[in-house]
Amino acid sequence: MTIFSSRQPHPYRTRPHGFLVAAFCLLAFADSAFGADFPRGGGYYFSAFKLVAFLLGYFAWVAVCNWVDEDAQDQKIPATFWNSIMLGSGAAAALLLWVSTAFWPMFFLVTGGVFGVSFWYAHTRNQKVEPDKRVLTQKHLQGLLRRYLKIKNVSLGGKEKKGVPVRFIGRSFNQKTEDPNRVERAAESKGYKVALAMVYEAVKNRATDIHLEPTKEEMSVRLRVDGMLKAVLPFTRPMGDAVVNIFKVLCNMDITEKRKPQDGSFSAQVEDFFVDFRVATAGSVVGEKLVMRILDLSKQLAGLPEIGMRDKLRDQVRALVTQPHGLFAVCGPTGAGKSTTLYACMAEIDRYQRNIITIENPVEYQLDHVTQIEVNPKAGKTFASELRSILRQDPDVIMIGEIRDQETAEIACQAANTGHMVFTTIHANDAVTAIGRFLDLGVQPFMIASALSGILGQRLVRLLCPDCKVKYKPNPNILRKVNLPAEKIKFFYKPPSKSGKTDDDGDDEEEAGTGCEKCGGTGYHGRTGIFELLLVNDKMRESIRENPNLNALRQEAVKSGVRFLFEDGLRQVVEGATSVQELLRVSM
Fold first, then answer.
1. How far apart, in whole angstroms, are the C-alpha atoms of residue 387 and residue 407?
2. Interatomic CA distance for residues 175 and 373, integer angstroms
3. Distance (Å, whole) CA 568 – CA 461
4. Torsion over CA: 168, 172, 176, 177 (sign)
5. CA–CA distance from 401 to each of 55, 317, 426, 523 (Å)?
6. What kind and span of H or E run contains 210?
């Protein structure tokens, strides 16, 4: 929720209450025009039951019309068309009830017709949204019953499903065919159903990683949700070791080796969508630790508008990535969403007209009309060696998953200087520090100055849960410290607190948690990006060539109007998307 809503009233939004107004106006006109000559009959024809039924149907139709109008605008569905359909169906129903002599048969007939139109709209919008946002499905109806009637474990449609709706698939990420022997061996192992339940819980909680960490007494389980680790019920040590072995079998690892690190992958079908898992193990003094990265293949790749960029920044990035040559780098710590941003940039390029080749470790998402190469150091396929080879493949655009060494950095700069557009990521705290990182790798300053077009620094901040966030009045002194107008900022938002206290600073955030089903009591649901874009101008190039001083470059960035990470994050705070404490946690 933002402080100032951006929703504009639709020009053809339905005004169903006008029907009652029109009806009363018509009666008043008839009474004044005809007076005593108006045929009224013998009287006492009023039916309270029919009136109540009509009003209930009318107000239900009003609610559905309002929902259709708002939902159509949210989902980018032609709202004018559906408003006209809903308005027409209501008008036809009212007319038929008015002229019909058999009220009850006609009432049920028109009610079914009006809500049949609503079901038609629901079916149409369900085809255009993600599975978890569809309405009137079994999952949606079960959620409504749990939420409003407090009915748990409800089963719709007869028989209740048995077991966990997860099916493991013995197939590595780069394999096309399934190896059924892996699943058969895993299914015979102790703890197989426990492993299924753990994976299902992780996927349903939107986890990106699962950590199985051994201690002397038990195997702790933690899920990374929205970038934060969340502990769940641990396993006993024997059960935990059995679950680790199951995942090693699915990944075709050596289950007898518990000290050396191993890695692999497998897939799973969770309900009606598929998920890939990348698994890595490592030995410790108390046992073998396992971490699984979850890649949901049903999620569509986000474009620049969906990752949180403001309009001006989005236009600048789009202009950068569509240039014929240059080096565009995205920097930030691990887990800051750098790869997602690069994929979003790739979506801005005409992949039919340009030859695009990527070098990644690993390839997380498959892109149409893009040649994707996966690095495999064990087989001698490194970033540098693969980059040399693809330069002979006549590429227009090259995406390098990460620059880690001098050789890769130098080849990337050479490619940018010889007419290729190069995208890459590099680990650095901010955009200016990324230039220092290139220098630390040993790249000559003149190569960096001539190759770099721009550097995008970014972080991910958690979004406040829309169902349970609360607003509070911020302290004016804090607003002045961050250069915000205290007279214009009325409210900030924060997660709810157990104590229910509301202070000016929102410092009770560590007590967040009210049992909200949407966010699981954390107060946050989902993440978005905050960004800073450094466009390398001529003065910066000259400074990099002659005297690459980071303080001087940072001063030049300020003069050129760069909005740094904290400043961009304040925009999300003012709009009510995140909290001040979350911004400070991420950007400081």
1. 10
2. 14
3. 11
4. negative
5. 61, 18, 9, 33
6. strand 207-214
Q: Could you tell me the two tokens for 334?
A: 């691990």
Q: How far apart are CA 398 and CA 355, in angstroms?
A: 9
CA 3 and chain centroid, separation: 22
Query: Is residue 305 reached through a cis peptide bond, with omega within 30 degrees of 0 on the bond before it?
Result: no
Tokens 């909290």 correspond to what residue?
579
The whole-number average pLDDT for the span 360-385 is 84
User: What does the alpha-carbon distance between residue 458 and residue 565 come to, in Å, rounded to a whole number?
Assistant: 7
pLDDT at 199: 94
Name the residue among 585, 433, 461, 432 with its Cα closest to residue 530: 461
Average pLDDT over residues 415-442: 92
Query: Which H helix or E strand runs over 449?
Result: helix 445-451
State how far Cα 20 lies from the chain centre.
43
d(CA 372, CA 365) in angstroms, rounded, equals: 10
Smallest Cα–Cα separation from 286: which of 244, 321, 318, 251?
Answer: 244
Distance separating alpha carbons of residues 436 and 340, to the nearest angstrom: 24
- Residue 25 and residue 34: Cα distance in Å, rounded? 14
The domain covering 304-461+526-566 belongs, at the CATH homologous superfamily level, to: P-loop containing nucleotide triphosphate hydrolases (3.40.50.300)
| 158 pLDDT tier (thresholds 50, 70, 90) | very low
The pair of three-digit structure tokens given for residue 279, joined into one six-digit string: 């698994």
Q: What is the mean pLDDT of residues 513-536?
A: 83
Other C-beta atoms closer than 10 Å to the C-beta of 198 total 23
User: Which residue ranges make up each domain of the chain?
Assistant: 18-133, 166-296, 304-461+526-566
Encode pLDDT of 166-210 as tens digits.
899 887 766 667 888 888 999 988 889 999 999 999 999 889 999
Q: Tens of pLDDT along 86-145?
A: 888 888 888 887 777 788 888 888 888 888 888 888 888 887 776 667 788 777 776 666
Going by C-alpha positions, the residue among 24, 112, 122, 30 that lies closest to residue 68 is 122
The shares of helix, strand and coil residues in the chain, as percent rounded to the nearest 5, are 45, 20, 35
Fold matches, 166-296 and 304-461+526-566: no
Assign domain 166-296 one CATH number from 3.40.50.12780, 3.30.1490.20, 3.20.20.300, 3.30.450.90. Answer: 3.30.450.90
Quote the distance between the C-alpha of residue 455 and its chain's center: 24
Write out pLDDT tens, residues 37-81: 545 555 545 677 778 888 888 888 888 888 888 888 877 788 888
Q: Is the dihedral of CA 358, 359, 364, 366 positive or negative?
A: positive
Residue type, 527: R
Q: Is the dihedral of CA 18, 24, 29, 30 positive or negative?
A: positive
Strand residues in 340-410 grouped as ranges (E): 356-360, 371-374, 397-400
In sequence order, what are the residues at sequence separation of 6 or more whose Cβ sits closer than 8 angstroms to the Cβ of residue 324?
396, 419, 421
* 8 Å CB contact between 77 and 124: yes
Q: Which one is predicted more confidently, 399 or 106?
A: 399
Q: What is the pLDDT of residues 273-285, one digit of tens each?
A: 888 899 999 999 9
Q: How far is CA 136 from CA 53, 121, 122, 243, in A?
A: 24, 11, 8, 36
| Cβ contact 240:332 at 8 Å | no
